[in-house]
Amino acid sequence: MSDVGAGILGIVGMSALAGVLVTAAVTPALAVTGMAANNGISLFENLPGYLDIKELSAKTDIYSTQADGSQTLMASFFSENREVVPFEAISLYVKDAAIAGEDPRFYEHAGIDIQGTTRAVMNEFVIGGETQGGSSITQQYVKNVLINNGIRDAKTEEERDAAYAAATESDGNAGISRKLKEMKYAIALEKKYQKDEILKGYLNIAAFGGRVYGIESASQYYFGKSAADVSLPEAASLIAIVNHPEKFRLDQPDDPENGAATVNEAGEPVPYAANKQRRDYILDEMLKYGKITQEEHDAAVVSPVTPVITEPSTGCQTAAGSAYFCDYVKNVILHSYDDPATTDINEGRRKLEEGGLQVYTTLDPELQQRAIEAVAENVPFTDPRFDVGSAAVTVQPGTGKVLAMAQNKTYSQADEILATDPTTSAINYSTDFDYGGSSGFQPGSTFKVFTLGQWLKEGHSLLESFNGSRRTFASFPGACSGGTISTPGYNPKNDDSRTANNAVDATKYSVNSSFMAMAQQVELCGIKKTAEAFGVKRADGLELGQRWAWNEDGTPVLNPDGSQAINPDAEFQPAAVLGTEEVSPLSMAVAFAGIANDGVTCTPIAIESITESDGTPVEAPKSTCTAAVTPEVALAMQYAMKQTFNGGTAGESRTGTGIEHIGKTGTTDDAFDTWMIGASKTASTAVWVGNVTGGENRQNLRRVDFDSGEASRARHRIWRSIMELADTRYGGADFTDPDQSAFKQVLADIPQVTGLSFDAAKQALETAGFVAEDGGQQDSNQPAGTVTGTDPTGQAGKGSTVRIFTSNGSMTGVPNVVGMTDGQADAALKQAGFRVQRQNEGTTDPTKVGVVLSQNPAAGASAKPGDQVTISIGRLGGGGDAPGDD
Q1: Per the CB 3.0–4.6 Å rule, which of 342, 681, 872, 880 could disulfide with 840?
Q2: What is the per-residue burial (b if ≥16 Cβ within 10 Å, else e) of 827-838?
Q3: What does the alpha-carbon distance between residue 671 and residue 691 come to, in Å, rounded to a whole number?
Q4: Cα dist from 273 to 96, 110, 257, whole Å
Q5: Which 8-state DSSP code applies to residue 226?
Q6: For residues 166-182, b (16+ Cβ closer than 10 Å) or e, as one string?
Q7: Are 786 and 811 in contact (CB under 8 A)?
Q8: What is the pLDDT, as a whole number, of residue 497?
Q9: Rounded Cα gap, residues 675 and 688, in angstroms
Q10: What one-character DSSP code corresponds to residue 183?
Q11: By the 8 A CB rule, do 631 and 638 touch?
Q12: Which of 253, 233, 188 is nearest to 47 (CA)?
């Protein structure tokens, strides 16, 4: 029935007769299994007449773009290592080997080799032997398509396993039904596609052992060359694998199943004996069917099987120093392509490992290399004293493009390596937990820029004075929960003895007490919202101020759905002004890029574009740009932050390129974390150097040195090196100065404190925002110790120094003697201890004669005992000489 049956089948094509012939061929098997022939025919005829061939699983490649526009492969991801190639990219040796070894009558039959199929079915379902060949190439293609379709449709691992099992079922009626389905689909395929198209599809979908699929990936993996370039014996060895992928694969030479125990007549081991045996069979068949000459056959048969295993680029470890950036890109894809509207939680991963994406990233390879070198030259990968860490990330203002990302570790995801090699890490220090596993680090004083922003948003100016002295800050208004946060005894230290009484100096010199004074005059919750507007959040995924809830035994408090609960009592605290919230370097680089971009913050993107393997565009995640503050506020922030390079705390990071920068340094308590963050108009770089983990082995970076110099200064060395190149590559315009309204001096009323005690007056002045200073004692008729007045009085800028004067109690008030007779006035003044000086004053009123008309000093004035008081006595007519002193 073989040639004749095939010929008849070819003539009748895809008619129902084909189904009858096929079913008749397997009737003995149907009978043995208990399935009636007419049931088999009915099943055959009721199957759909077409096969939907879904896209093959294909690997995703991630590239960086070189300066000349060329692409460099960083890494690939796949569940099935496959690269689909066109028919003409496959060696004729491979095509001929496949036909000779798997289906010699491929170009003659119409989808089914009746003879081979009958033999295979009888062996598999009747005799109960191993699954044999016999299925045509078209049938094998159908089987692989059904496996692929089932896997591509599956939403879970369980569904995948079930789909594979259904497509490979070999027991009883289910197995017979599966075979019939393959036959019917094979006939349908032959009607729709040319033979070469089917052969191409088969060679691209076939399994070649492990995770290797398709002839191109198999050629690259086993022999390090493309499918177009393999030799005759190599082609036969590759097609040999298809027959039994796990038995004949070439990357397990020590496996007895692969022939490791086989020896030749001389007792010598035969490498890859199982594969060679199958290979030589295929070579014999190729000779038999005239595909090769006797000479070619003989030379190929005597050649040993010599694979050149070439591991594919798989996973980010192949990206070397750019591996952490690659890992970030991987996680962006995983998160971006999960559809929240579905229950499938693995869509992103399938897109990454099966979607065949060509991903072109935003990485600047030249700047990336500089970042890698700058970190490596200044921070060791490991330190016996503590768990040392460093990260540097650069973002482009206005676009959000991540240009560089490096850290002081070698990337690995292998547990055995991570457990034994402290120079490796799977955690990306630059990113948030969801995008690299890091819980972030305290940013220290770099976080102060958000208080600066809120200060300006609420109408305060750069030079508006305030009391920046170190003192206890008892409360802060404007908590996010409403009301005021009480902070009794909160008296943060300054890094040195410097005092700053305006926002420019406070930023330039990073004075803690100055920023706490500013925070007291604005909405505390507003500082949180300003930071969030610039893209800052906790690296653990929570909002600033939030915390996870924990039980007393250290276990997490869980919500009813099993997720961890958030502590309802957590609050954005005043200490956060000085940088106590754990954040990622990437989010801080984004924030400073937003400040440099005149207040417009762009979310980070690491992917420039994506296409499918055939070049079809795929929508890539986009950056979203929003105004965090107004341009006027941003320009004022820039002005203050520029001063850090002009004699301020960032002076050591000056690049000397002539490009203007804004910046801010940060050092946490005990210098466990040190930061330098700054930006030009075209590049924003955040550098962190510190302790990766806590515990008693943490080191104060001001007390240790690296080979490169002081550990606490490494941040400056790294930042300067990266930004020197960024300045050269991207340039950068000068920052625009704000208009004069940003520098206005705001005057406030000085409280009236006369008559109060010194302490009460001091508190009143400090509450009003002034610096109170003891001006000393004065002669006064006020009770000793009470306040007699201040200097200045009226109005002054908040933060101005106001001197307080107190009474020494040495003076008394002059009695009021106006209206008394001369004698009465003389007696009253002398009794009060004053000397009396008289003078006449003319009057026309007879009743005023002899009466005191005026006095000097005036009534109530302060004077010392023994001082002279002059009284004017009324006389009719003109004045006259004074009657003299008494």
Answers
A1: 880
A2: ebbeeeebebbb
A3: 9
A4: 22, 35, 9
A5: -
A6: ebeeeeebebbbbbbbb
A7: no
A8: 85
A9: 5
A10: H
A11: no
A12: 188
Region of 172 on the Ramachandran plot (φ > 0 left; ψ -120 to 50 alpha; else beta): left
pLDDT at residue 298, as a whole number = 97
CA angle 598, 599, 603 (to 5 degrees): 115
Whole-Å CA distances, 331 to 428, 601, 797: 11, 22, 52
CA angle 718, 719, 723 (to 5 degrees): 120
Taking the C-alpha atoms of residue 406 and residue 394, their distance in angstroms, rounded to an integer, is 9
- CA atoms of 878 and 421, how far apart (whole Å): 112
**What tokens appear for 245 in the block?**
């992928």
At 18 the pLDDT is 45
Q: Give the helix/strand (H/E) hosting 173.
A: helix 172-192
- Tell me the average confidence (pLDDT) per consecutive run of 10 residues in the chain, 886 residues long: 38 41 46 45 56 85 94 91 93 97 92 71 54 74 90 75 75 72 88 95 94 95 96 98 92 67 68 91 97 97 94 88 97 85 70 91 98 98 96 98 98 92 96 96 98 97 91 92 92 91 96 96 97 97 95 93 92 96 98 98 98 90 97 98 97 97 97 98 98 91 97 98 98 96 89 93 88 88 87 85 88 88 90 90 91 91 87 79 55
Domains identified in the chain and CATH numbers: 2-302 (1.10.3810.10), 746-807 (3.30.10.20), 812-885 (3.30.10.20)
Q: State the Cα–Cα distance between residues 595 and 591, nearest whole angstrom.
A: 6
CA distances from 839 to 4, 815, 820, 835, 885 (A): 156, 18, 15, 14, 9
Q: How far apart are CA 571 and CA 863, in angstroms?
A: 59
* Sign of the alpha-carbon torsion through 101, 102, 104, 107: negative
Contact 329, 62 (CB under 8 A): yes
Map 317-362 to HEC letters: HHHHHHHHHHHHHHHHHHHHCCCCCCCCCCHHHHHHHHECCEEEEC
Which residues in 81-101 are b (16+ Cβ under 10 Å) and which e? bbbbbeeeebbebbbbbbbbb
One-character DSSP codes across 455-501 = HHHTT--SS-----S---EEEEE--TTSSEEEEEEE-PPPSSS----
Q: What letter does residue 265 receive in the DSSP assignment? A: T
Question: Among 459, 817, 480, which Cα is nearest to 633's?
Answer: 459
Q: Kindly state the tokens that stand for 475.
A: 């409360």
Residues in contact with 674: Cβ distance below 8 Å, sequence separation at least 6, in sequence order? 444, 665, 666, 667, 668, 688, 689, 690, 701, 711, 712, 714, 715
410 Cβ contact partners less than 8 Å away, ≥ 6 residues apart:
323, 381, 421, 423, 424, 425
Phi then psi for residue 381, to 5 deg, are: -75, -25
Q: Which two tokens stand for residue 572?
A: 């954005």
Residue that the structure tokens 């030589």 belong to: 280
- C-alpha to C-alpha distance for 577 and 696, rounded to whole angstroms: 26
For tokens 């080799």, what's the residue?
Answer: 113
Q: State the pairing for strand pair 709-710/705-706.
A: antiparallel
| C-alpha R_g of the chain | 44
Q: Environment class of residue 149 by beta-carbon count within 10 Å: exposed (0-12), middle (13-18) or buried (19+)?
A: middle
Can you list the alpha helix ranges (DSSP code H) found in 193-322? Answer: 195-205, 215-223, 232-243, 245-248, 273-288, 294-302
